[in-house]
TrEMBL record:
Keywords linked to the UniProt accession: Hydrolase, Magnesium, Metal-binding
UniProt domain Sucrose phosphatase-like: residue ranges: 178-234
Name of the protein this chain belongs to: Mannosyl-3-phosphoglycerate phosphatase protein
InterPro entries linked to this entry: HAD-like_sf, HAD-SF-IIB-MPGP, HAD-SF_hydro_IIB, HAD_sf, SPP-like_dom
UniProt enzyme class: hydrolase
Organism this protein belongs to: Salinisphaera shabanensis E1L3A
Keyword rRNA-binding in annotation: no
GO biological process terms on file: mannosylglycerate biosynthetic process
UniProt GO MF annotations: magnesium ion binding; mannosyl-3-phosphoglycerate phosphatase activity
Pfam families: Hydrolase_3, S6PP
PANTHER family attached to this UniProt entry: HAD SUPERFAMILY HYDROLASE-LIKE, TYPE 3, PHOSPHOSERINE PHOSPHATASE
Length: 271
């Protein structure tokens, strides 16, 4: 195992990545310090495996990761057996949630029955995703390549959203409200992904200190499952959740807040 027993689990959008330009540069120095301390950084995101693959190459990140809000977990082959892994190491992927086809069929049925107003990724082409997210064409195509979730641009009322969530849950599936999208997924969330990965780290290396960072509703389960959780500030400076118990507030928005949290943990010898 690493010199440190800590493992960092992080959301991407508006957390490690800037909400507006998707840059991680404000967290670059903190990432370098974690690498020097051999602290794994495991991405846990609503993004797809195709999107994460490109970012992992950019970050030189060869650690396990979870996609589509915990719907699937990917582990580089040989990682927990001590093999040297990088961003290009072949992956073993485990589906924790539900297949995308099941999710898409449900939201279409609910829209037809109740008249809910939303636009799902299944309704969108690449140009629509570009308009909704600001991603470039290549990145937008990767965002559409989904396996275990169906994101929706919600265009109806909060009351309608409550009704929709109840109907999805009654069907045995789940809804998570993220920074940009409402995500329909199976009964697996980011907290389940953290717990699944923690078990494998601990089986291989002994107890870990799980640190989790996020900014929105779909990060709640992950922060609750961690030993130390951090809310980073949202673009308007507010926080999604309170600082209480093992969950703290990072001083800063997005990747700047992410860096502040990591710097504080290292300064206080917590990791």
């Amino acid at each position: 195992m690493a010199r440190s027993s800590a493992v960092v689990f992080t959301d991407l959008d508006a957390t490690l990545l800037d909400h507006h330009d998707y840059s991680w540069q404000a967290a670059g120095e903190a990432l370098a310090v974690l690498a020097a301390h051999e602290v794994p950084v495991c991405i846990v995101t609503s993004k797809t495996a195709a999107e994460v693959a490109a970012l992992r190459c950019e970050l030189a990140n060869g650690h396990p990761f979870a996609t589509e809000n915990g719907g699937a977990v990917a582990v580089p082959q040989g990682y927990f057996e001590g093999a040297h892994c990088d961003a290009n190491t072949p992956l073993d992927v485990t589906t924790l949630g539900a297949e995308r086809e099941i999710l898409r069929a449900l939201v279409e049925r609910l829209r037809a029955k109740h008249g809910f107003r939303f636009t799902g990724f299944g309704d969108m082409g690449v140009d629509d995703v570009i308009e909704a997210t600001g991603l470039d064409r290549e990145a937008a195509a990767k965002a559409l390549d989904r396996a275990a979730s169906e994101p929706l641009l919600w265009q109806d009322s909060e009351e309608a959203l409550d009704t929709f969530c109840g109907a999805v849950e009654a069907a045995g599936l789940a809804v998570r409200v993220g920074g940009r999208f409402v995500h329909v997924l199976g009964q697996a969330d980011k907290g389940d992904a953290l717990t699944w990965l923690r078990a494998r780290y601990e089986r291989a290396h002994g107890p870990i200190l799980a640190v989790a960072l996020g900014d929105s509703g779909n990060d709640v389960d992950m922060l609750e499952a961690a030993d130390i959780g951090y809310w980073v500030a949202r673009p308007d400076g507010s926080y999604h959740g309170s600082a209480m118990g093992h969950i703290r507030h990072a001083r800063g928005i997005g990747p700047a807040g992410w860096a502040e949290a990591i710097t504080a943990l290292i300064a206080h010898h917590e990791i």
